[in-house]
TrEMBL record:
Domain Helix-turn-helix span(s) in chain numbering: 29-87
PANTHER family found in the cross-reference section: REVERSE TRANSCRIPTASE (PTHR21301), REVERSE TRANSCRIPTASE DOMAIN-CONTAINING PROTEIN (PTHR21301:SF10)
Recorded superkingdom: Eukaryota
UniProt xrefs under Pfam families: HTH_animal
Organism, as annotated: Chionoecetes opilio
Name of the protein in question: Helix-turn-helix domain-containing protein
InterPro entries: HTH_animal
Protein backbone atom coordinates (compact mmCIF):
# COMPACT_ATOMS: atom_id res chain seq x y z
CA UNK A 1 0.00 0.00 0.00
CA UNK A 2 1.57 3.33 -1.02
CA UNK A 3 1.75 6.12 1.52
CA UNK A 4 3.19 9.44 0.35
CA UNK A 5 6.22 8.28 -1.67
CA UNK A 6 6.79 5.02 0.24
CA UNK A 7 5.43 1.65 -0.84
CA UNK A 8 4.83 -0.54 2.23
CA UNK A 9 4.45 -4.28 1.61
CA UNK A 10 3.75 -6.91 4.25
CA UNK A 11 5.81 -10.06 3.86
CA UNK A 12 5.27 -12.86 6.37
CA UNK A 13 5.90 -11.20 9.74
CA UNK A 14 7.66 -8.04 8.59
CA UNK A 15 7.16 -5.00 6.44
CA UNK A 16 9.22 -4.10 3.39
CA UNK A 17 9.48 -0.51 2.24
CA UNK A 18 10.42 0.81 -1.16
CA UNK A 19 10.18 4.06 -3.12
CA UNK A 20 6.74 4.47 -4.67
CA UNK A 21 6.51 6.08 -8.09
CA UNK A 22 3.06 6.85 -9.46
CA UNK A 23 2.16 5.14 -12.73
CA UNK A 24 1.53 8.59 -14.23
CA UNK A 25 5.07 9.81 -13.41
CA UNK A 26 6.72 11.02 -16.61
CA UNK A 27 10.25 10.99 -15.18
CA UNK A 28 10.92 14.69 -15.73
CA UNK A 29 13.18 16.65 -13.39
CA UNK A 30 15.70 19.48 -13.66
CA UNK A 31 17.56 19.17 -16.95
CA UNK A 32 21.24 18.40 -16.52
CA UNK A 33 22.15 20.64 -19.46
CA UNK A 34 20.24 23.66 -18.13
CA UNK A 35 21.88 26.98 -17.32
CA UNK A 36 21.67 26.77 -13.55
CA UNK A 37 24.29 26.51 -10.80
CA UNK A 38 26.03 23.15 -10.38
CA UNK A 39 24.80 22.95 -6.78
CA UNK A 40 21.20 22.76 -8.07
CA UNK A 41 22.13 19.84 -10.29
CA UNK A 42 24.01 18.13 -7.44
CA UNK A 43 21.00 18.66 -5.20
CA UNK A 44 18.70 17.00 -7.73
CA UNK A 45 20.96 13.96 -7.94
CA UNK A 46 21.30 13.90 -4.16
CA UNK A 47 17.54 13.97 -3.63
CA UNK A 48 17.07 10.83 -5.72
CA UNK A 49 19.93 8.99 -3.99
CA UNK A 50 18.91 10.01 -0.46
CA UNK A 51 15.34 8.96 -1.17
CA UNK A 52 16.58 5.50 -2.14
CA UNK A 53 18.71 5.29 1.02
CA UNK A 54 15.93 6.38 3.38
CA UNK A 55 12.93 4.60 1.85
CA UNK A 56 14.27 1.17 0.83
CA UNK A 57 14.45 -1.48 3.53
CA UNK A 58 16.73 -3.95 1.72
CA UNK A 59 19.98 -3.59 -0.17
CA UNK A 60 18.47 -5.15 -3.32
CA UNK A 61 15.59 -2.67 -3.39
CA UNK A 62 17.96 0.23 -2.77
CA UNK A 63 20.25 -0.89 -5.60
CA UNK A 64 17.28 -1.25 -7.94
CA UNK A 65 16.02 2.23 -7.01
CA UNK A 66 19.45 3.80 -7.52
CA UNK A 67 19.61 2.20 -10.98
CA UNK A 68 16.12 3.53 -11.80
CA UNK A 69 17.06 6.99 -10.53
CA UNK A 70 20.29 6.94 -12.53
CA UNK A 71 18.34 6.16 -15.70
CA UNK A 72 15.85 8.98 -14.99
CA UNK A 73 18.73 11.42 -14.47
CA UNK A 74 20.54 10.30 -17.64
CA UNK A 75 17.27 10.71 -19.57
CA UNK A 76 17.15 14.29 -18.27
CA UNK A 77 20.63 15.16 -19.55
CA UNK A 78 22.82 14.54 -16.50
CA UNK A 79 26.27 13.12 -17.15
CA UNK A 80 27.03 9.68 -15.79
CA UNK A 81 30.22 11.08 -14.27
CA UNK A 82 28.28 13.63 -12.18
CA UNK A 83 25.75 11.01 -11.10
CA UNK A 84 28.46 8.56 -10.02
CA UNK A 85 30.41 11.30 -8.22
CA UNK A 86 27.38 12.45 -6.22
CA UNK A 87 26.23 8.88 -5.52
CA UNK A 88 29.65 7.94 -4.16
CA UNK A 89 29.86 11.09 -2.05
CA UNK A 90 26.39 10.64 -0.54
CA UNK A 91 26.81 6.94 0.16
CA UNK A 92 30.20 7.54 1.84
CA UNK A 93 28.63 10.21 4.05
CA UNK A 94 25.64 7.96 4.76
CA UNK A 95 27.65 4.97 5.95
CA UNK A 96 30.56 6.91 7.54
CA UNK A 97 28.99 10.09 8.94
CA UNK A 98 31.89 10.91 11.28
CA UNK A 99 34.62 10.35 8.69
CA UNK A 100 33.87 13.61 6.86
CA UNK A 101 33.51 15.86 9.89
CA UNK A 102 36.68 17.71 10.70
CA UNK A 103 36.95 19.69 13.88
CA UNK A 104 38.76 22.94 13.51
CA UNK A 105 39.37 25.48 16.24
CA UNK A 106 38.57 29.03 15.29
CA UNK A 107 40.42 31.80 17.09
CA UNK A 108 38.50 35.04 17.44
CA UNK A 109 40.43 38.16 18.33
CA UNK A 110 38.62 40.72 20.43
CA UNK A 111 39.67 44.24 21.31
CA UNK A 112 38.04 45.67 24.40
CA UNK A 113 38.13 49.27 23.15
CA UNK A 114 37.10 51.15 20.06
CA UNK A 115 39.42 53.16 17.93
CA UNK A 116 38.86 56.89 17.72
CA UNK A 117 39.46 56.82 13.97
CA UNK A 118 35.73 56.79 13.34
CA UNK A 119 35.41 60.23 14.95
CA UNK A 120 37.79 61.67 12.37
CA UNK A 121 35.79 60.09 9.54
CA UNK A 122 32.51 61.45 10.95
CA UNK A 123 34.01 64.93 11.23
CA UNK A 124 34.95 64.87 7.54
CA UNK A 125 31.45 63.84 6.50
Amino acid sequence: MPFLDVLVTQKEESFITNVYVKPTNTGHCLNGESECPQRYKDSTIGAYIRRALTHCSTWQLMHKEIERSTQVLINNGFSERDINRQTKKIMENWYNPNATKKSQDITIFYRAFFSTAHQEEERII
